[in-house]
């Protein structure tokens, strides 16, 4: 019995060690694909600010023209930063909040149907952007990101430097 258990455990460990190698390529795909989609969405909004402003006015949002410009810039620049993997977690946090606000303001019915009619929730426009942002927020950008490359040059402070800074 212990041989079978050890064999299964060994196969399990080998499989998940191999799967771990796919984490960074997967995160790169998520960042580049959904970052590019967000940047295109923001670019389209920036070039049609009057339509976005009208839509925000129909939602009774405060300061619709300023909000339209802000949301368009968040999506455009946030998408670029996400795709590059630069300031990834801060960008992902900003995009997550942006997508949650989009659900609350523009797709409230889909948001409230998350448990009663999940298909409506999944089909809403902010869903995939929200999921991509949350993945990067929780897991990080992976090894193939500018954040990772910059951390090699900047490095982490040593324990001595950390204790000297706190004094």
Can you offer a commentary on this structure?
With 167 residues, the protein is an all-alpha fold. It has one domain (26-165). The chain is 80% helix and 0% strand. The protein contains 10 helices and no strands. It has helices at 2-20, 23-46, 49-58, 64-84, 88-106, 108-112, 118-123, 126-139, 146-154, 159-165.
Short description:
The chain has ten helices and no strands. The chain has helices at 2-20, 23-46, 49-58, 64-84, 88-106, 108-112, 118-123, 126-139, 146-154, 159-165.
Mean pLDDT reading = 91
Query: What sort of overall outline do the alpha carbons produce when their principal axes are compared?
Result: flat
Number of domains: 1
* Rg, Å, rounded: 21 Å
Q: Quaternary state, please?
A: single chain
Order of helices and strands: HHHHHHHHHH
* Low-confidence sequence ranges: 161-167
- β-strand number: 0
Helix content: over 70%
Helix count? 10
Structural class: mainly alpha
Strand fraction equals under 5%
For the termini, the CA-CA separation is 57 Å
Biggest sheet features: none
Topology:
Blueprint: H1 2-20, H2 23-46, H3 49-58, H4 64-84, H5 88-106, H6 108-112, H7 118-123, H8 126-139, H9 146-154, H10 159-165
Question: Keyphrases for this structure?
Answer:
single chain; 167 residues; mainly alpha; 80% helix; 0% strand; disordered C terminus
């Amino acid at each position: 019995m212990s041989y079978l258990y050890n064999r299964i455990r060994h196969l399990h460990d080998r499989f998940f060690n191999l799967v771990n190698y796919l984490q960074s390529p997967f995160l790169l795909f998520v960042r580049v694909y959904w970052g590019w989609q967000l940047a295109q969405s923001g670019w389209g909004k920036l070039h049609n600010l009057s339509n976005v402003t009208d839509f925000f006015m129909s939602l009774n949002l405060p300061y619709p023209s300023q909000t339209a410009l802000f949301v368009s810039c968040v999506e455009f620049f946030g998408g670029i930063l996400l795709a590059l993997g630069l300031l990834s977690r801060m960008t992902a946090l900003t995009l997550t909040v942006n997508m949650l606000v989009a659900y609350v303001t523009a797709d409230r019915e889909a948001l409230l149907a998350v448990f009663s009619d999940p298909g409506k929730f999944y089909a809403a426009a902010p869903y995939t952007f929200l999921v991509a942002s949350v993945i990067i927020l929780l897991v990080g950008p992976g090894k193939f990101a500018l954040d990772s490359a910059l951390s090699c040059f900047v490095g982490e402070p040593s324990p001595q430097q950390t204790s000297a800074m706190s004094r």
